[in-house]
Design a protein that fits this description.
This protein has a five-stranded parallel sheet with strand order 2-3-1-4-5, with helices on both faces. It is α/β, with parallel strands linked by helices and 288 residues long. It is 60% helix and 9% strand. The N and C termini lie far apart (62 Å). Helix 5 packs parallel to helix 6 and helix 10 runs antiparallel to helix 11. It has two domains: 211 residues, P-loop containing nucleotide triphosphate hydrolases (Rossmann fold, 3-Layer(aba) Sandwich); 70 residues.
Protein backbone atom coordinates (compact mmCIF):
# COMPACT_ATOMS: atom_id res chain seq x y z
CA UNK A 1 0.00 0.00 0.00
CA UNK A 2 2.88 2.34 0.81
CA UNK A 3 4.45 1.75 -2.62
CA UNK A 4 1.07 2.15 -4.32
CA UNK A 5 0.54 5.51 -2.63
CA UNK A 6 4.01 6.70 -3.58
CA UNK A 7 3.56 5.77 -7.24
CA UNK A 8 0.08 7.33 -7.30
CA UNK A 9 1.55 10.59 -6.01
CA UNK A 10 4.23 10.43 -8.69
CA UNK A 11 1.70 9.86 -11.46
CA UNK A 12 -0.50 12.64 -10.07
CA UNK A 13 2.38 15.04 -10.66
CA UNK A 14 2.68 13.99 -14.31
CA UNK A 15 -1.09 14.04 -14.88
CA UNK A 16 -1.31 17.51 -13.33
CA UNK A 17 1.33 18.74 -15.77
CA UNK A 18 -0.58 17.22 -18.70
CA UNK A 19 -3.75 18.97 -17.54
CA UNK A 20 -1.83 22.25 -17.47
CA UNK A 21 -0.72 21.60 -21.04
CA UNK A 22 -4.29 20.98 -22.16
CA UNK A 23 -5.49 24.16 -20.48
CA UNK A 24 -2.68 26.22 -21.97
CA UNK A 25 -1.39 27.17 -18.51
CA UNK A 26 2.25 26.48 -19.28
CA UNK A 27 5.41 28.50 -19.44
CA UNK A 28 6.35 29.45 -22.98
CA UNK A 29 9.20 27.21 -24.25
CA UNK A 30 11.48 30.20 -24.84
CA UNK A 31 11.14 31.60 -21.32
CA UNK A 32 14.15 31.03 -19.03
CA UNK A 33 12.12 29.77 -16.04
CA UNK A 34 12.13 26.21 -17.27
CA UNK A 35 14.25 23.65 -15.47
CA UNK A 36 15.71 20.19 -15.88
CA UNK A 37 16.71 18.82 -12.48
CA UNK A 38 18.99 15.82 -12.94
CA UNK A 39 18.95 13.56 -9.90
CA UNK A 40 21.74 11.02 -9.62
CA UNK A 41 22.13 8.34 -6.99
CA UNK A 42 21.72 4.67 -6.24
CA UNK A 43 18.43 2.85 -6.80
CA UNK A 44 16.27 2.91 -3.64
CA UNK A 45 18.20 5.89 -2.25
CA UNK A 46 15.15 8.15 -1.92
CA UNK A 47 15.27 9.80 -5.35
CA UNK A 48 11.61 9.19 -6.21
CA UNK A 49 10.39 10.66 -2.93
CA UNK A 50 12.53 13.76 -3.42
CA UNK A 51 11.54 14.05 -7.09
CA UNK A 52 7.85 13.97 -6.21
CA UNK A 53 8.16 16.48 -3.38
CA UNK A 54 10.22 18.82 -5.56
CA UNK A 55 7.82 18.57 -8.51
CA UNK A 56 4.80 19.39 -6.35
CA UNK A 57 6.69 22.28 -4.76
CA UNK A 58 7.58 23.64 -8.21
CA UNK A 59 3.93 23.30 -9.25
CA UNK A 60 2.91 25.35 -6.21
CA UNK A 61 5.17 28.12 -7.55
CA UNK A 62 3.50 28.06 -10.96
CA UNK A 63 6.05 25.84 -12.70
CA UNK A 64 4.43 22.87 -14.49
CA UNK A 65 6.70 19.92 -13.73
CA UNK A 66 6.87 16.26 -14.72
CA UNK A 67 8.80 13.51 -12.94
CA UNK A 68 10.33 11.18 -15.51
CA UNK A 69 12.27 8.06 -14.65
CA UNK A 70 13.03 4.52 -15.75
CA UNK A 71 10.56 3.00 -13.30
CA UNK A 72 7.71 4.62 -15.23
CA UNK A 73 8.71 2.67 -18.32
CA UNK A 74 9.65 -0.56 -16.54
CA UNK A 75 6.08 -0.79 -15.23
CA UNK A 76 4.89 -0.79 -18.85
CA UNK A 77 6.76 -4.07 -19.43
CA UNK A 78 5.33 -6.95 -17.34
CA UNK A 79 8.58 -8.92 -17.60
CA UNK A 80 10.03 -6.63 -14.92
CA UNK A 81 7.50 -8.05 -12.45
CA UNK A 82 9.17 -11.45 -12.79
CA UNK A 83 12.82 -10.59 -13.32
CA UNK A 84 15.20 -7.74 -14.12
CA UNK A 85 16.17 -8.04 -17.83
CA UNK A 86 19.37 -5.99 -18.45
CA UNK A 87 18.91 -6.22 -22.23
CA UNK A 88 15.78 -4.04 -21.95
CA UNK A 89 17.55 -1.20 -20.14
CA UNK A 90 18.83 0.64 -23.27
CA UNK A 91 15.23 0.79 -24.54
CA UNK A 92 14.03 2.06 -21.17
CA UNK A 93 16.73 4.75 -21.23
CA UNK A 94 15.71 5.93 -24.70
CA UNK A 95 12.12 6.18 -23.52
CA UNK A 96 13.06 8.47 -20.64
CA UNK A 97 15.20 10.70 -22.87
CA UNK A 98 12.54 11.09 -25.56
CA UNK A 99 9.85 11.83 -22.96
CA UNK A 100 12.08 14.37 -21.24
CA UNK A 101 12.67 16.12 -24.56
CA UNK A 102 8.91 16.09 -25.25
CA UNK A 103 8.02 17.84 -21.99
CA UNK A 104 10.87 20.35 -22.10
CA UNK A 105 9.94 21.23 -25.67
CA UNK A 106 6.46 22.15 -24.49
CA UNK A 107 7.53 24.38 -21.65
CA UNK A 108 7.21 21.84 -18.84
CA UNK A 109 10.07 21.49 -16.37
CA UNK A 110 11.35 17.98 -15.68
CA UNK A 111 12.84 16.19 -12.69
CA UNK A 112 14.90 13.26 -13.97
CA UNK A 113 14.28 10.50 -11.44
CA UNK A 114 17.04 8.11 -12.47
CA UNK A 115 20.38 6.79 -11.25
CA UNK A 116 22.30 8.77 -13.93
CA UNK A 117 25.46 7.22 -12.51
CA UNK A 118 27.74 7.88 -15.50
CA UNK A 119 28.76 11.39 -16.51
CA UNK A 120 27.77 10.44 -20.07
CA UNK A 121 24.20 9.81 -18.88
CA UNK A 122 24.07 13.21 -17.24
CA UNK A 123 25.60 14.76 -20.35
CA UNK A 124 22.77 13.44 -22.51
CA UNK A 125 20.28 15.21 -20.25
CA UNK A 126 22.34 18.40 -20.19
CA UNK A 127 22.26 18.41 -23.99
CA UNK A 128 18.46 18.09 -23.92
CA UNK A 129 18.26 21.06 -21.55
CA UNK A 130 20.47 23.15 -23.83
CA UNK A 131 18.39 22.37 -26.90
CA UNK A 132 15.17 23.23 -25.04
CA UNK A 133 16.57 26.45 -23.57
CA UNK A 134 16.12 25.13 -20.03
CA UNK A 135 18.24 25.72 -16.94
CA UNK A 136 19.74 22.44 -15.77
CA UNK A 137 20.91 21.47 -12.32
CA UNK A 138 22.47 18.24 -11.06
CA UNK A 139 21.44 17.08 -7.60
CA UNK A 140 23.50 14.29 -6.07
CA UNK A 141 21.80 11.79 -3.76
CA UNK A 142 24.47 10.39 -1.46
CA UNK A 143 22.41 7.98 0.63
CA UNK A 144 24.84 5.18 1.67
CA UNK A 145 24.81 1.83 -0.10
CA UNK A 146 23.75 -0.10 3.01
CA UNK A 147 20.72 2.15 3.46
CA UNK A 148 19.75 1.83 -0.22
CA UNK A 149 19.96 -1.96 0.04
CA UNK A 150 17.81 -1.89 3.17
CA UNK A 151 15.17 0.35 1.56
CA UNK A 152 15.18 -1.81 -1.57
CA UNK A 153 14.52 -4.89 0.55
CA UNK A 154 11.70 -3.11 2.38
CA UNK A 155 9.98 -2.28 -0.89
CA UNK A 156 10.13 -5.87 -2.10
CA UNK A 157 13.51 -6.05 -3.86
CA UNK A 158 12.15 -4.32 -6.96
CA UNK A 159 15.75 -4.22 -8.22
CA UNK A 160 18.23 -7.05 -7.54
CA UNK A 161 20.60 -6.15 -4.70
CA UNK A 162 23.53 -7.15 -6.93
CA UNK A 163 22.50 -4.51 -9.49
CA UNK A 164 22.53 -1.79 -6.83
CA UNK A 165 25.95 -2.92 -5.58
CA UNK A 166 27.27 -2.95 -9.16
CA UNK A 167 26.01 0.59 -9.83
CA UNK A 168 27.67 1.73 -6.61
CA UNK A 169 31.03 0.42 -7.86
CA UNK A 170 30.66 2.09 -11.26
CA UNK A 171 29.27 5.39 -9.98
CA UNK A 172 31.03 8.47 -11.36
CA UNK A 173 30.72 11.25 -8.82
CA UNK A 174 29.35 14.48 -10.33
CA UNK A 175 32.06 17.05 -11.00
CA UNK A 176 34.93 14.57 -10.77
CA UNK A 177 35.75 15.03 -14.48
CA UNK A 178 33.98 18.09 -15.87
CA UNK A 179 32.98 21.51 -14.56
CA UNK A 180 29.55 21.29 -16.21
CA UNK A 181 28.93 18.13 -14.19
CA UNK A 182 29.17 19.75 -10.76
CA UNK A 183 26.27 19.24 -8.34
CA UNK A 184 24.03 22.12 -7.37
CA UNK A 185 23.37 20.29 -4.09
CA UNK A 186 24.01 16.94 -2.39
CA UNK A 187 21.84 15.08 0.12
CA UNK A 188 21.95 11.94 2.21
CA UNK A 189 18.21 11.28 2.29
CA UNK A 190 18.57 8.95 5.25
CA UNK A 191 19.51 12.07 7.23
CA UNK A 192 17.78 14.93 5.40
CA UNK A 193 13.96 14.79 5.04
CA UNK A 194 12.82 14.91 1.42
CA UNK A 195 10.61 17.96 2.06
CA UNK A 196 13.55 19.94 3.42
CA UNK A 197 15.80 18.84 0.56
CA UNK A 198 13.14 19.83 -1.99
CA UNK A 199 12.82 23.31 -0.47
CA UNK A 200 16.59 23.79 -0.58
CA UNK A 201 16.81 22.65 -4.21
CA UNK A 202 14.01 25.01 -5.26
CA UNK A 203 15.68 27.92 -3.49
CA UNK A 204 18.93 27.17 -5.31
CA UNK A 205 17.12 26.81 -8.65
CA UNK A 206 15.60 30.26 -8.27
CA UNK A 207 19.06 31.69 -7.57
CA UNK A 208 20.37 30.44 -10.91
CA UNK A 209 20.43 32.62 -13.99
CA UNK A 210 20.01 31.22 -17.46
CA UNK A 211 23.36 32.63 -18.59
CA UNK A 212 25.25 30.93 -15.76
CA UNK A 213 24.81 27.52 -17.33
CA UNK A 214 27.23 27.74 -20.22
CA UNK A 215 27.11 25.38 -23.13
CA UNK A 216 28.89 22.10 -22.60
CA UNK A 217 32.04 22.04 -24.74
CA UNK A 218 31.59 19.77 -27.75
CA UNK A 219 34.94 18.21 -26.86
CA UNK A 220 33.32 16.62 -23.80
CA UNK A 221 30.93 14.60 -25.94
CA UNK A 222 33.75 13.83 -28.36
CA UNK A 223 35.91 12.53 -25.51
CA UNK A 224 33.11 10.30 -24.25
CA UNK A 225 32.36 8.83 -27.68
CA UNK A 226 36.09 8.40 -28.27
CA UNK A 227 36.51 6.46 -25.01
CA UNK A 228 33.42 4.34 -25.63
CA UNK A 229 34.48 3.35 -29.15
CA UNK A 230 38.06 2.61 -28.06
CA UNK A 231 36.72 0.24 -25.43
CA UNK A 232 34.57 -1.54 -28.02
CA UNK A 233 37.57 -1.92 -30.35
CA UNK A 234 39.67 -3.26 -27.49
CA UNK A 235 37.03 -5.88 -26.68
CA UNK A 236 36.74 -6.91 -30.33
CA UNK A 237 40.51 -7.15 -30.85
CA UNK A 238 40.77 -9.53 -27.91
CA UNK A 239 38.37 -11.78 -29.80
CA UNK A 240 39.92 -11.27 -33.25
CA UNK A 241 43.48 -9.84 -33.03
CA UNK A 242 43.87 -9.72 -36.82
CA UNK A 243 41.03 -7.18 -37.05
CA UNK A 244 42.92 -4.49 -35.11
CA UNK A 245 43.90 -2.30 -38.07
CA UNK A 246 40.52 -2.42 -39.82
CA UNK A 247 38.66 -1.64 -36.60
CA UNK A 248 41.00 1.21 -35.69
CA UNK A 249 40.48 2.90 -39.06
CA UNK A 250 36.72 2.36 -38.88
CA UNK A 251 36.63 3.82 -35.38
CA UNK A 252 38.29 7.09 -36.39
CA UNK A 253 35.90 7.74 -39.27
CA UNK A 254 32.93 6.66 -37.16
CA UNK A 255 33.74 9.15 -34.37
CA UNK A 256 33.91 12.00 -36.88
CA UNK A 257 30.57 11.03 -38.41
CA UNK A 258 28.94 10.53 -35.00
CA UNK A 259 29.92 14.02 -33.85
CA UNK A 260 28.80 15.53 -37.15
CA UNK A 261 25.42 13.77 -36.80
CA UNK A 262 25.07 14.90 -33.18
CA UNK A 263 24.69 11.38 -31.80
CA UNK A 264 24.56 10.90 -28.05
CA UNK A 265 27.13 8.61 -26.44
CA UNK A 266 24.56 5.85 -25.98
CA UNK A 267 23.39 5.98 -29.61
CA UNK A 268 26.97 6.18 -30.88
CA UNK A 269 28.02 3.19 -28.79
CA UNK A 270 25.09 1.12 -30.04
CA UNK A 271 25.72 2.05 -33.67
CA UNK A 272 29.44 1.38 -33.45
CA UNK A 273 28.95 -2.04 -31.85
CA UNK A 274 26.77 -2.93 -34.82
CA UNK A 275 29.42 -1.63 -37.24
CA UNK A 276 32.15 -3.64 -35.50
CA UNK A 277 30.14 -6.85 -35.83
CA UNK A 278 29.63 -6.11 -39.54
CA UNK A 279 33.38 -5.63 -40.02
CA UNK A 280 34.20 -8.84 -38.16
CA UNK A 281 31.67 -10.76 -40.25
CA UNK A 282 33.15 -9.30 -43.45
CA UNK A 283 36.68 -10.28 -42.42
CA UNK A 284 35.50 -13.74 -41.45
CA UNK A 285 33.83 -14.20 -44.85
CA UNK A 286 37.02 -13.13 -46.67
CA UNK A 287 39.10 -15.55 -44.64
CA UNK A 288 37.05 -18.56 -45.65
Amino acid sequence: MKNFARYNLKYFTIIHSLQSLAEGAIIHPTQPRKFLVILCGLPSSGKTTLATRLALLMESHGIPTAVIGSDNFRRMMPIYQERFPPDREPLIRRGTLHTTAFFLGRGVSVVSDDTNYYSSMRHELVELAKRAGAIYAIVSIETPLEIALKWNEERGLSIPQSVIASINEKFEKPGSKYKWDRSLASFDLSRTPADKAAEEVLKLLFSLKHEEKKAVPSSSMGDEIDRATRKIVSEAVRRVPSAARALSEARKSFVREALKAGLTTVDAERAFRKRVEEILNELDAKGR
